[in-house]
């Protein structure tokens, strides 16, 4: 705050910071009509001065202000609004930010504020500047500033220009300039102390606010955690209760299962087995993969039959040629007496005549045709026998399933009978009785699987078996087989 001192004769006013209090000393009636107050400030650059007067215009309604420089350049009617263009000289002052402003002044509603570089007295001070404030009544229709507005202007100037009191420090036996420098330095120290106190207070206030915010946040988090813990605890209790109920239901189910009669469980197992057997009856047959395994064998038999049939047809054709050869020769001889019989045969069918003699005889052709016919009939019989074996296997399997169904019922009856016997007599069933009621249980009555043998193999076995002696010439060595010379012990052992 400011202390304003006004003496009797010169209306000299000094403003300085002193315990946030303003004092005015008026000793004459003339001072009540007009007052002149002087503020001593440290050396201030031009930019700071211009900013101060622009603030007066923008905050307190001062219309314009004027500037005078040490070079005699005057800038009048400077407007603070941004949208109004400034003069070129004013822009140069702003860019230079020097100390060439000698005088800057403005008035508004009975107040006249003047800034003097180096003060009003001669010689000019190199250390401080002065601001003079003239308070005078306004004779125009415009109303004067109120006391509160005047105080706000004083506070504004004190805040912007940092005034000091040159008389605050004891006068030493040094030049006046040193005393003024000491005053400025002391005032700067006071301001730094006040700034330090303010910073400490702000830091303490910030710390208190932060601590309060932290405590509130901590309290909120604790409440949230407690609420969440309570919810989790309640959920745990509910799930524990559900688990207990499920465990009780499970125990009751297990007790019910244990309490059931073994006979009922056994009969259920029997029924399931019988249902499985019945399902197999309904869907009796082989799988597609098993059915496909028959295809190569069937195709081989079919191919063998086709080959033998083709050879048989060819043999019959040759046989027909042999039968028709004499007739052709006779007809050709009658029509052309000059041609020989051999030439006719050579023209008709060359492969039957070689050097005038017949290559194939009637006996060989009849034997070949007979052998091929026998091979074809044997192949057909083998195919029929193979198919019959496959059908027998199916029938045996079906019979075994039926027998298994009967054996299951029979075995269940045996078990129940044994349990009832033990329950009634407290002893085991006699072994003779048990063997009699379980005889041939789960035993297959199907005959042993017979291998399918080709009729040619059977014929060869029959020939070799009935022959008295067999000699084989193998690579110049003779092997003689005589069944009569085989010892009876060996023969019986093999049989």
Radius of gyration, in angstroms, nearest whole number: 71 Å
User: What's the arrangement of strands in the largest beta sheet?
Assistant: 3-8-7-6-4-5
Major sheet summary line: 6 strands, antiparallel
Specify the helix fraction band. Answer: 55-70%
SS strand fraction = 5-15%
Class by alpha and beta content: alpha+beta
Number of domain units: 3
Low-confidence stretches: 1-32, 339-360, 488-495
Gross geometry: elongated
What is the typical, i.e. mean, pLDDT? 72
Task: Give the termini separation.
Answer: 143 Å
Can you count the helices? 12
How do the helices and strands follow one another from N- to C-terminus?
A: EEHEHEEHEEEHHHHHEEHHHEEH
**How many E-type strands?**
12
Question: Layout of helices and strands, plus pairs?
Answer:
Elements: E1 3-6, E2 13-16, H1 29-33, E3 35-42, H2 46-60, E4 65-69, E5 74-78, H3 88-96, E6 101-108, E7 111-116, E8 128-135, H4 147-161, H5 176-259, H6 262-282, H7 288-335, H8 341-348, E9 353-354, E10 357-358, H9 362-425, H10 431-437, H11 455-466, E11 470-474, E12 477-481, H12 488-494
Antiparallel strand pairs: 1-2, 3-8, 4-5, 4-6, 6-7, 7-8, 9-10, 11-12
Helix pairs in contact: 2-4, 6-9, 7-8, 7-9
Keywords:
12 helices, 495 residues, disordered C terminus, alpha+beta, two-stranded antiparallel sheet, 6-stranded antiparallel beta sheet, membrane, 60% helix, transmembrane, coiled coil
